[in-house]
Amino acid sequence: MTTAARRIEQAFAHQAPDRTPIFEIFWPYQPIYWDVAGRNMATDQGLAWDAMADGVAWEELTEAQAKADLAMLEFFELDMVHLEYGTPRNYPRPQKTGEHTWKLNGRDYHWDDHIHLVVPTHTRAEDGNDILAGASEEDFERKVKAEADLPLPAPNLDLIARFERLRQLADAKGLKPVYMAEVGAGTAAAHYPVCMWMWMMEEPELYLYWLKRKKAYGMAMTEEYLKRGATVVALGGDISTDNGPMISPALYTEFVLPVIQEQVALVHRYGAKAVYTSDGNHWKIKQEFFFDSGADGYKEVDYAAGMLMPRLIEEGIKDRVTIIGNVDARQTLCMGTPEAVRKHTRECIEWGMKGSLPGGHILHTSHSVHEGVPVDNYYAMWNEYRRFFGLPEKARP
């Protein structure tokens, strides 16, 4: 067993590793990639859209993505790696319309120099809701009914090719991290359109038609990742806001929890670990979320929503569920000084060592290194971790 795998195993077993394991999720195209992996079609969305408009081959794009993933793994010396979905083989190709503008599916896009991403030029009311995907609620309902008796969807293995290539590249260098896949199965109720919340109460058969297909696809993708060597699976998806669950505890228990339990059981059959992933404040569904789910770990530990390590210890959660977090990625990492980030990181590590059992903590942000996190602040967090455990700090490349 590699050192990284042993650390992660001990963290999940609530045993004291030689040092707290470290894990991170870097959002695609976050400028931190530019330091470590260079600025190219795998790390800069503008360059990616240019390459796709020029007809870059799927294989070439996948190779570039896997090499960028490898560079981040190697530089940051991560014990556990988050597996990003790759690009579908028959991906929709944008058309370049100007130096920093494109058109895709009839819609205009441009480069936003503030967040370093390609964004729609004109916003729409349905933007941000992947379920509706631009459809009206009436069209969405018709689609769900029309698909009710169709064959269940098969997994898209193109999306896993990036992971497979990353693993080949890492193996060739002797790097053996733990790989975490992240696969939803339709249970992220915080992202449902309002009509689906109404279906759960008034037309549950409609909701269950939709959920059946999402669950089937999620379970199939989960199994494909597990077959290929992922030993941790993040699942669930957002269920709460800062003020509590988006649906009632009764609806959560009736509709969402059984799917979570089924997916957790699948992960356990492969001898892997299941991690419940959700932003928000879950105290009103503490028993169901943390314990009845059967999850081994908890990710997206939302510091700003009140999911604080002292209470996770006090309530007995940290001694039963491994905490993956929770350096605040909403306020401290975004708006704090590097010194404030360092102080917060030290406190997080120290809290992670408390409780009646010695392990049970993997250092990570409270969500991810997203576009709002200044690069210098993540380096401050990461180097404070290294300083805490007597490792040499690394300068920004």
Layout of helices and strands:
Layout: H1 3-12, E1 23-24, H2 32-37, H3 45-53, H4 58-76, E2 80-82, E3 95-98, E4 101-104, E5 107-112, E6 117-120, H5 137-147, H6 161-172, E7 178-182, H7 194-202, H8 204-227, E8 232-236, E9 240-241, E10 244-245, H9 249-269, E11 273-277, H10 286-292, E12 297-299, H11 309-314, E13 322-324, H12 332-335, H13 338-352, E14 361-362, H14 375-388
Parallel strand pairs: 1-2, 2-7, 7-8, 8-11, 11-12, 12-13, 13-14
Antiparallel strand pairs: 3-4, 4-5, 5-6, 9-10
Helix pairs in contact: 4-6, 7-8, 8-9, 13-14
Plain-language structure description:
There is one protein chain. This protein has 397 residues and is an alpha/beta fold. The chain is built from 14 helices and 14 strands. The strands form three sheets. The chain has an eight-stranded parallel beta sheet, sandwiched between helices. Helix 11 (309-314) links the parallel strand 12 and strand 13 (322-324). It is globular and about 55 Å long. 43% of the residues are buried. The mean pLDDT is 95.
Mean pLDDT: 95
Strand content: 5-15%
What's the assembly state of these chains?
A: single chain
Shape: globular
H/I helix tally: 14
* Order of SSEs: HEHHHEEEEEHHEHHEEEHEHEHEHHEH
**Fraction of helical residues:** 40-55%
Distance between the termini: 31 Å
